[in-house]
Amino acid sequence: MIARVVRAVILAIAVIAVSLVPTPARADERVVIPDACTVTHPYDAASSLTDLKSGIETNWGFLLTGKYWTDETYRPIVAVIWRTLDAISCTPYLDTLHAKVGALELFATSIGGWTAGDYGLTKADAVSLDFPQLLTNYQTDPGHVSRLFVHEMTHAYTRDRSSNPAYWADFTALYAKNGRFGSYGSSASETFSEVVGYFVARCAANNPYTVSEAAYYDFAKNEVFGGKEFGPALGQPVACDATVQDSSGAYESANAAVQAAVADREAAAEEIAANGAEVYGYESLTTDSN
Questions:
Q1: How far apart are CA 209 and CA 157, in angstroms?
Q2: H or E element that contains 105
Q3: How many other C-beta atoms are found inside a 10 Å radius of the C-beta of residue 110?
Q4: Which residues pair with 50 in a beta bridge?
């Protein structure tokens, strides 16, 4: 009798112990981009990458080239790009971009060196994205992928700056007064792309947006994104883990079950020791599953 109890307890502990090992988060669960827009095309982790590639082209008017779009290794990057585009789709950004460049080409490639993306350098008139490098970035900072993607798209957005349109005149005046934004870029063009990229990717690590950068924040909000914000107002906490379920209750429940199982095992062991193992058939207890 006790032998069966002990065997059951050991099995229960093994099962519970396995259940306590965290399951790796799926790519679609890791990235949180505060949405300015109601989600119109939810990312579906069950979709094939071929369908996701086609969906980005159809839903948001891009031309996707390069082998990595359909390489399962890079699903997390495709997921971030999908979600970023959906998050900005109700703002004027994409319409303005396409009015300037048409169906912008997004080239999934490996650039080499330290840069993870560019506009018009690796491939003329295309945003080139270094998927292998971005995947490395993703491991510690998923928001970086969104920021860099928007940053490079924004270089295409500002391709008309040489004619000094109103938005560019406003920004260069702002840049002359406020200077560099964050730790990257020492020109008006790079700063513009950083201002816009970090405005979207509020959850990117080391985001420079604090109340001291309100002038750049208000510019991006009002002149680029039509008054939309990606998260709460500047200065308010941003919930970058909003889609991560609170697992503390599940852990406590499982932990309590483990403690109860351990107590049962100890009680059984004490009874065996007091009465003699052979009385309970304990000598036949085995962990061999065959």
A1: 21
A2: strand 105-109
A3: 14
A4: none
Percent helix, strand, coil in the chain, to 5, is 60, 5, 35
Answer for the pair 75, 96: CB distance below 8 angstroms, yes or no.
Answer: no
In what helix (H) or strand (E) does residue 79 lie, and over which residues does it extend?
helix 75-88
Alpha carbon distance 60, 88 (integer Å): 10
Measured on CA atoms in the order 241, 243, 249, 254, is the torsion positive or negative? Answer: negative
For residue 109, the cross-strand partners are: 130
Categorise residue 182: left if φ over 0, alpha if ψ from -120 to 50, beta otherwise.
left
Residue at token pair 């009385």: 279
Spatial distance between the Cα atoms of 106 and 123, rounded to a whole number of angstroms: 10
Contact by Cβ (8 Å): 147, 200: yes
pLDDT tens for each residue of 219-252: 999 999 999 999 999 999 888 874 433 333 333 4
Tell me the pLDDT tens digit for each residue of 33-86.
Answer: 778 888 899 999 999 999 999 999 999 999 999 999 999 999 999 999 999 999
The residues spanned by each domain of the chain are: 2-22+248-284, 27-224
E-assigned strands of the chain? 63-65, 105-109, 117-119, 126-130
CB–CB of 33/204 below 8 Å? no
- Give the predicted TM-score (pTM) of the model: 0.74
Q: Which two tokens stand for residue 5?
A: 């109890």
Encoding tokens for residue 35? 């949405």
